[in-house]
């Protein structure tokens, strides 16, 4: 059993060690992959650490072993049989160090602190008028009011001593973070003067005049913190217009709040219930006075008429102030709502103009419905019609940063751009355009010239093929790329080889060939690399097989008929007799004509039908006469025909654009029943052309003597 237990322990330790080695190898492999993918990453590799299983605990002199010390550090207390681990947030709180300088534009902690400062400022602005006008501050609750007042004063003091003296600032284009410079900048600012003014110690007059809330009125002068908080909060909110609407509504409510406090003070000055105009003292005083303030500022009417001179003057001032304040609030609310819906208003105006245009030109309803669908989907998916309009005002560097965050992960996966200059890819990212395709829209069609590369951002596209062009060959998903070879292909290789349609709504990034060429001018090494990759990709791509010409296809030069077997036999026989020079020239011309025929078959698409009549049987007979060195043609045109057909370079006929009527071959008139024949110099081979009853039918005969046949058998 001891031997078995020892063996199991050793195998366990070996397995543990192997797992650790595998983990280390994986980490090094990932680092090498990152280095190959991103050359800018550092190549410093961390040295492998020792395995925790192999690290022996080292005991400190006079202290517990290291293993026991780690166990003790993992627990902060032991209660009976339970052990509790350290709470992470407590450790972070204990080890937290207050920053020596604060960036007021990006530091969220500073925005949170401004929130507390604004809450203290709102406490003073809202409750000082209430405590002054209404009888809500009594000797029984005076300590509660004083406690809240001094808590707000403490927040004001901490803001001056701790935060404002640590705010970074810009001087001469440089961000200053020196402690002394930041403190001096705050002490010389206008904000420091207002902060000192709002903390005037007027509370000492409490000992002489009592606790009068009006002595705390300077606390309302810390309005700069309120406006700074508004700007910082709007910068971090995704829907800032919601906060603007809430803030404008708060302005209106605060104006009504102050008016209700003034109305209660005027009623108390005249005497509660003394006239029909003043507050009668019944019900909740604040609610009743607030209701009166709302009716006055909104000028609803139905208010009692003032009786005394004081009441008349107060009501007139209240009316004037209410109309002015209410009109300002309504105008500001209109601006806030208009700014919030500016994009939607632009979308509606564009859509209405497009519909009006289509109705004017009587565009079919199917096309109009697709246009409407495109507008609606583009607006709901992107929140805008053109993304590039938002980035026009930004500097080029910021546009590049945004493009990298949005598109770099997709473009870096394109095999065509692997190994290219990173700056070239960055310049290319700024040229990408976002386009939305509707379901069943053709992204590209087979045979058209390819001028763009497509990157799928959202949605799917299908590649169609097959005999009828409706078979789905493959479905491409987000992150896929197609059409990249068309950016660099030349010489007719940039034609689309398949139809690609959108399967559902698809959002694609498009890179134009013209934009890429403008970029590659500045990166010649990347241009050479892309050319090589494009050639390799074109070679590995399965090209469509060359098909035979269909009956309806048009050729520039139609294929000539095959050489008659009898003529081939005559050439073979004549080649053994002499006349090698002329026969070699004839064979070379025949091979050249065959090569022209093969080349013309591959040019069946887009060609024009030739109207040239090829060599007929009579021309073959003339050729024989010339080859054999003896011509008995009564017309005497054999030599000219041979010169035209074989001794001149094979020039294609003129295009039928210039001459559409067919040109008939000029035949030599041969009398019916007449016979053409030709013999060799040694009279061993005789070629005869025998006409028949039909005008276009002739018989070609070749006669070889018995002596020649005997030589061939030998």
Automatic annotation (TrEMBL):
Residues 416-520 form the Cyclic nucleotide-binding domain. Gene3D superfamilies: 1.10.287.70, Helix hairpin bin, Jelly Rolls. Residues 31-68 are annotated as: Disordered. It is found in: Membrane. Residues 52-61 have a biased composition (Low complexity). GO terms for cellular component: intracellular cyclic nucleotide activated cation channel complex; photoreceptor outer segment; plasma membrane. GO terms for molecular function: cGMP binding; intracellularly cAMP-activated cation channel activity; intracellularly cGMP-activated cation channel activity; protein-containing complex binding. It is a multi-pass membrane protein. CDD domains: CAP_ED. The keyword Ligase does not apply. The chain crosses the membrane at residues 110-130, 142-163. Keywords: cGMP, cGMP-binding, Ion channel, Ion transport, Ligand-gated ion channel, Membrane, Nucleotide-binding, Sensory transduction, Transmembrane, Transmembrane helix, Transport, Vision. GO terms for biological process: retina homeostasis; visual perception. Its main location: membrane. The keyword Transmembrane helix applies. It catalyses: K(+)(in) = K(+)(out); Na(+)(in) = Na(+)(out). This is Cyclic nucleotide-gated cation channel beta-1. It comes from Chaetura pelagica (Chimney swift). The lineage of its organism: Eukaryota, Metazoa, Chordata, Craniata, Vertebrata.
């Amino acid at each position: 059993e001891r031997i078995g237990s020892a063996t199991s322990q050793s195998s366990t330790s070996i397995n543990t060690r192997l797992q650790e080695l595998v983990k280390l190898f994986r980490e090094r492999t990932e680092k090498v992959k990152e280095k190959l993918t991103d050359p800018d990453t550092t190549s410093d590799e961390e040295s492998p650490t020792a395995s925790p299983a192999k690290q022996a605990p080292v005991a400190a002199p006079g202290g517990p072993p290291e293993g026991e010390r780690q166990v003790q550090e993992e627990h902060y207390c032991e209660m009976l049989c339970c052990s509790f681990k350290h709470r992470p947030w407590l450790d972070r709180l204990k080890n937290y160090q207050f920053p020596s300088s604060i960036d007021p534009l990006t530091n969220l902690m500073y925005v949170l602190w401004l929130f507390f400062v604004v809450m203290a400022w709102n406490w003073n602005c809202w409750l000082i008028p209430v405590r002054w006008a209404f009888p809500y501050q009594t000797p029984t609750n005076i300590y509660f009011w004083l406690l809240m007042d001094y808590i707000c004063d403490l927040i004001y003091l901490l803001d001056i001593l701790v935060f404002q003296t640590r705010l970074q600032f810009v001087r001469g284009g440089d961000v200053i973070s020196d402690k002394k410079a930041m403190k001096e900048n705050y002490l010389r600012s206008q904000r420091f003067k207002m902060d000192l003014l709002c903390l005037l110690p007027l509370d000492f007059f409490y000992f002489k005049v009592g606790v009068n809330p009006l002595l705390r009125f300077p606390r309302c002068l810390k309005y700069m913190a309120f406006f700074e908080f508004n700007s910082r909060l709007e910068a971090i909110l995704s829907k800032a217009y919601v906060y603007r609407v809430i803030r404008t509504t708060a302005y209106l409510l605060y104006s009504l709040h102050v008016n209700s406090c003034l109305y209660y003070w005027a009623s108390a000055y005249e005497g509660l219930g003394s006239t029909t105009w003043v507050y009668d003292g019944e019900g909740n005083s604040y609610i009743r006075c607030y209701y009166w303030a709302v009716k006055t500022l909104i000028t609803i009417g139905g208010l009692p008429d003032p009786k005394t001179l004081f009441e008349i003057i107060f009501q007139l001032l209240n009316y004037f102030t209410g109309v002015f304040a209410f009109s300002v609030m309504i105008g500001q609310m209109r601006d806030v709502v208009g700014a919030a819906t500016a994009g939607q208003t632009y979308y509606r105006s564009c859509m209405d103009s497009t519909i009006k245009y289509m109705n004017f030109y009587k565009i079919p309803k199917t096309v109009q419905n697709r246009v409407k669908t495109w507008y609606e989907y583009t607006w709901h998916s992107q929140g805008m019609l053109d993304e590039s309009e938002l980035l026009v005002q930004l500097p080029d560097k910021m546009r590049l940063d945004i493009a990298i965050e949005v598109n770099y992960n997709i473009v870096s996966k394109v095999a065509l751009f692997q190994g290219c200059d990173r700056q070239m890819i960055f310049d290319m990212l700024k040229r990408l355009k976002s386009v939305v395709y509707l379901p069943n829209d053709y992204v590209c069609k087979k045979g058209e010239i390819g001028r763009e590369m497509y990157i799928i951002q959202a949605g799917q596209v299908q590649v169609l093929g097959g005999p009828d062009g409706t078979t789905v060959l493959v479905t491409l998903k987000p992150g896929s790329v197609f059409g990249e070879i068309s950016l660099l292909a030349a010489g007719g290789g940039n034609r689309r080889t398949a139809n690609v349609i959108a399967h559902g709504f698809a959002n694609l990034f498009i890179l134009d060939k013209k934009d890429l060429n403008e970029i590659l001018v500045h990166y010649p090494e990347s241009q050479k690399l892309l050319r090589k990759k494009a050639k390799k990709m074109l070679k590995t791509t399965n090209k469509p097989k060359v098909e035979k010409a269909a009956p309806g296809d048009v050729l520039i030069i139609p294929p000539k008929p095959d050489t008659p077997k009898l003529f081939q036999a005559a050439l073979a026989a004549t080649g053994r007799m002499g006349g090698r020079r002329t026969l070699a020239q004839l064979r070379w011309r025949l091979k050249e004509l065959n090569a022209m025929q093969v080349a013309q078959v591959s040019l069946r698409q887009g060609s024009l039908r030739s109207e040239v009549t090829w060599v007929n049987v009579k021309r073959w007979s003339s050729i024989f006469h010339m080859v054999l060195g003896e011509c008995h043609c009564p017309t005497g045109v054999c030599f000219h025909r041979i010169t035209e057909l074989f001794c001149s370079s094979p020039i294609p006929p003129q295009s039928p654009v210039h001459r559409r009527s067919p040109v008939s071959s000029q035949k030599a008139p041969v009398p019916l029943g007449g016979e053409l024949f030709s013999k060799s110099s040694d009279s061993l081979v005789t070629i005869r052309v025998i006409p028949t009853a039909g005008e276009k039918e002739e018989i070609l005969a070749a006669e070889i003597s018995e002596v020649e046949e005997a030589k061939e058998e030998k």
